[in-house]
Amino acid sequence: MKNVLIIGSTGQIGSELTMKLRRMLPEGTIVAGYIPGAEPKGELLESGPSAVVDVTNGAQIAETVEKYKIDTIYNLAALLSAVAERKPLMAWNIQMNGLINILEIAREKGCAVFTPSSIGSFGPETPHQNTPQDTIQRPRSMYGVTKVATELLSDYYHNKYGVDTRSVRFPGLISHITLPGGGTTDYAVEIFYAAVKGEEFVCPIAAGTYMDMMYMPDALQAAVDIMQADPTRLVHRNSFNIAAMSFEPETLRAAIAKRIPSFRMRYEVDPVRQAIADSWPDKMDDSCARAEWGWKPTFGLDEMVDDMILNLRKKLL
Ligand code: SER
Fold first, then answer.
1. Alpha helices in 25-121 (DSSP H)
2. Fewer beta carbons below 10 Å: N end or C end of the chain?
């Protein structure tokens, strides 16, 4: 990995991954791909090249790959689960037509490709406790349908054409830098903004709903480590379960209230997001990722909550 294109570089993951790779690979070229209306700003803009790369425009991708001699593509363009339910055709177009554009270019130019999958690739029939690496994947949401298809198509391009595709199934991702947009797990980020600002939080997910979550530094490390793993050790490719913590809204409320005693939360459950959350695992088994490429998270619930509050106080107050 030397010259990298990040598609979706201004999004929740992309904005931090681009900066991490630029620090990590000073000899390489890390190109921040974006769509008009979501331009990079500040440090992201100034620290390296950027280019308009709409995932649905194959010519744009090819041109940028050619110009910068790209060897690795991080494909982070996606509509998250709740938005994808409102705009299913747009989600299909970005997630599937976008992916096949990238895979075709990767096949021609010999690029490695990372396209994240998610806890959203599972469905109601999946075992919810210690969800195995290889298990039933029958999601009912459009987001989930595109994520399962992403896993299959990525494996197909590896098996048929030898394209170096690899990925992980991300849990809900929590960070203090860029907000997620329209996911089912977003509550676990928004709750911190309310708590630090001294506002009441209205939680759209019901008490008792467990989901896997992860702090962004661990997610970024996973995205890097999987692409640098020794390929001879990989039994799986698309995609690996990775887990760090599993909690429900009350657990998070209590952890925040321990640090901000005046914090208050009430529930106004959103039926769309609740149905999606109910169909997802409570807790994934990530033993294959641990065994095949050494996955190991560093942030548990308490470390994550401390760091979120510390950083959001600096940002918001
Ligand atoms: N965080 C995503 C969502 O909630 C799941 O991968 O849609």
1. 42-46, 58-67, 81-86, 88-92, 98-109
2. C
Domain ranges in the chain?
Answer: 3-171+215-241, 172-213+245-283+298-316
Amino acid identity of residue 30, one-letter, is I
Which of 65, 63, 69 minimizes the C-alpha distance to 27?
69
Distance CA(206)–CA(250), nearest Å, equals 9
> What is the C-alpha separation between 285 and 283, in angstroms, rounded?
7
| Terminal alpha carbon distance of the chain | 39
Do 119 and 281 contact (CB within 8 A), yes or no? yes
pLDDT category, 181, cuts 50, 70, 90?
confident
Burial class of residue 222 (count of CB atoms within 10 Å of its CB; 0-12, 13-18, 19+): buried
pLDDT, tens digit, 9 for 90 and up, residues 131-161: 999 999 999 999 999 999 999 999 999 999 9
Its pTM stands at 0.97
Which CATH number does 3-171+215-241 carry? 3.40.50.720
- Ligand 1 pocket, 238 CB below 6 A? no
Q: Tell me if residue 215 is catalytic.
A: no
Q: Which of 34, 68, 74, 143 is catalytic?
A: 143
Cis previous bond, 246, omega within 30: no
Strand partners, 75: 7
Residues in the chain: 317
Q: Specify the residue with its C-alpha closest to ligand 1, atom 1.
A: 172
